[in-house]
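Dear support,

I submitted the protein below through the web form. The confirmation email said the job was done, but the results page showed an empty box. After a refresh the structure appeared. I'm attaching both so you can tell me whether what I see now is the final result or a partial one.
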Amino acid sequence: VLQKWVNREISNFDYLIQLNTMAGRTYNDLAQYPVFPWILRDYTSEELDLNNPAVFRDLSKPIGCSVVFIKIYFFRYENFEDPLGMIDKFHYGTHYSNAAGVMHYLIRVEPFTTLHIHLQSGRFDCADRQFHSIPATWQALMDNPNDVKELIPEFFYFPDFLENQNGFNLGQLQISKEVVNDVVLPKWAHSPEDFIYKHRKALESEYVSAHLHEWIDLIFGYKQRGPAAVEALNVFY
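What the results page shows now:
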């Protein structure tokens, strides 16, 4: 599979799906759901220029590792000590992939809607905490050192999860009073289908093809654990 990917006989999408499968990740287990990377950081431009490296995220760093937060993570790791000696030091107290995160993204489609409601004791979570906007979700990652969620494969092939086709009452945002309905898309996407098309195109772009191995090192490779993980600020609770 690696050689096929290197020879460009299979796409970046296919290679990531294969890696997830070999790592034991599966659609049948929300706690080990397939994980895909955030690949863009431009969610505000009118047009998406895939020839401009500045529109892409730095795939060599964990998603939460913006320059602003590096000192926070470093301090947390250096100063953490479990009195019982049971818990190892870590940079992040949460994880880039978990069941709640999958339900968060897929809240508009069953069976994830029902699973979300069960998780929230029989009701929808507060509207402000729901997945209501792709640009806002990216900005939250940049503003909150405790949010380190990566993406799920659906962001690259499944437009339906971006629409509230079942008409669920997801509430309204507290400050703007905006009703949470379909997911708000980046300006450069004119419909859910257009977003998926351009996002998939970005995944298969030259820039991502040249740098995807750096993210794979963090999630599936040698930077998962040990000294390389510490150096890469990639140690999770």
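Response: this is the final, complete result; the empty box was a page-load delay. The CA atoms of residues 24 and 43 lie 32 Å apart.
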